[in-house]
Amino acid sequence: MTLAKLAQVLAAAGSSAFYRQKLAKVGVVPSAIQSVRDYIQRVPFTTKAELLADHLAYPPFGSNLTQPLGAYTRFCQTSGTSTGQPMAWVDTPESWSAMLRCWRQVFHAAGLQPGLDRVFFAFSFGPFLGFWTAFEAAAADFLVIPGGGLSSQARLAMMARYGVTVICCTPTYALRLGELLGTEGAPAASALSVRKIIVAGEPGGSLAAVRSRIEQLWGARVFDHHGMTEVGPVSYESLDNPGYLSLMESSYFAEIMDPATGVEVADGECGELVLTTLDRLSCPLLRYRTGDWVRKSTSSGRLLLLGGILGRVDDMVVVRGVNLYPSAIEAVVRQFPEVVEFLVEQKKIEAMDEIELLVEVSIPQDSAVIAALATRLRDAFSLRIPVRAVPIGSLPRHEFKSRRWQRA
């Protein structure tokens, strides 16, 4: 099936001005690809930098379109790149429906029950792909309740009033809402019917300390999911495989490769996730370097990501010879429930990268928590990371993707 689908997406790419030019430069004729191995060896990677350059050269939607512009009915855009420039993405009804089918797999894998579950979407709807595809897919089987334009307290009140059983949000916002439960103006967890929380948008859903904290606050099971605007919904956590993300292999041809060599990594090793979209044919991507750092697992006969998304390839920072990822720092911080919020400040000191951890602690005078956290960080990374307490409420709060790593 994969080869047949690869042939289909290659044929679609032949109608894309972006890919006609890209493949012609390396002498690849899409119809000449006769095997999966041939595809891997001959078709070059696609990068986000190439897509951004194409969007700038052919505004506003770029040239990677396989249909006349009038055939496209759905619009979304990325949350931004390292340059701050978001990319617009458009879809035909057929490609949009393919992504809705992917989201229905996410809900099915989490054990949601059509006709019984009530799903609350705890975010303000903007041009981000995940909001709309998740909501529309859920509406085919469940009562869906949008929570846009409301305060956190109002959202919690709606969940209690309408018997919500499932929440969709980011891990950061699940923590924020959970910490409000039982406070002034918010219902207690016992007044809610929430039993499952599907999180996406950042790595926290697969971090043991983060998901444990969320589940403790809510008394509900956390399910991780990941996707991206450029490709769509990609993976999901299921009831029978906690701690893993399962790739939707019927919708994506996935590779996990060493970013330095471009060679597929062995089972159990980490690498960059590379995806080819098999069903989103109106804006196809061939061997797209996602920038997601993952650990490969094939022992079950399926391609799984052990520990979910471990970080971003371009997020790694070297501090005094130690490789650090933001998700690794968060995994340690979340072991301390006394930490209400945190921020990592990165700066150059004499041409060397250094970081400091700023934390809001529920008991500001409790220096023992600060000392214990500093010790835990040192033990985890063999590195001394300064930890400084700041006043409660002084660090930014996030509803969507968190920004807890600040570069000076």
Describe this structure in words.
- The chain is α/β, with parallel strands linked by helices and 408 residues long.
- The protein folds into two domains: 1-313, ANL, N-terminal domain (Rossmann fold), CATH 3.40.50.12780; 316-407, ANL, C-terminal domain (GMP Synthetase, Chain A, domain 3, 2-Layer Sandwich), CATH 3.30.300.
- Helix content is 29%, strand content 25%.
- The chain is built from eleven helices and 20 strands.
- It has helices at residues 2-13, 17-25, 36-42, 48-57, 93-109, 129-139, 152-161, 171-180, 208-218, 326-333, 367-381; strands at residues 74-77, 88-91, 118-121, 143-146, 166-169, 196-199, 221-228, 232-236, 244-247, 252-257, 270-277, 288-297, 304-306, 311-312, 317-319, 322-324, 339-349, 352-361, 387-389, 405-407.
- Strands 3, 4, 5, 6, 7, 8, 9, 10, 11, 12, 13 and 14 form a twelve-stranded mixed β-sheet that branches. The chain has a four-stranded mixed β-sheet with strand order 19-18-17-20.
- A hairpin with a 2-residue loop joins strand 15 (317-319) and strand 16 (322-324).
- Helix 5 (93-109) crosses helix 6 (129-139) and helix 8 packs parallel to helix 9 (208-218).
- It is globular.
- It starts with a helix and ends with a strand.
- The model has no long low-confidence stretch (mean pLDDT 91).
Comma- or semicolon-separated keywords:
single chain, 408 residues, alpha/beta, Rossmann fold, GMP Synthetase, Chain A, domain 3, 2 domains, twelve-stranded mixed beta sheet, four-stranded mixed beta sheet, 25% strand, globular
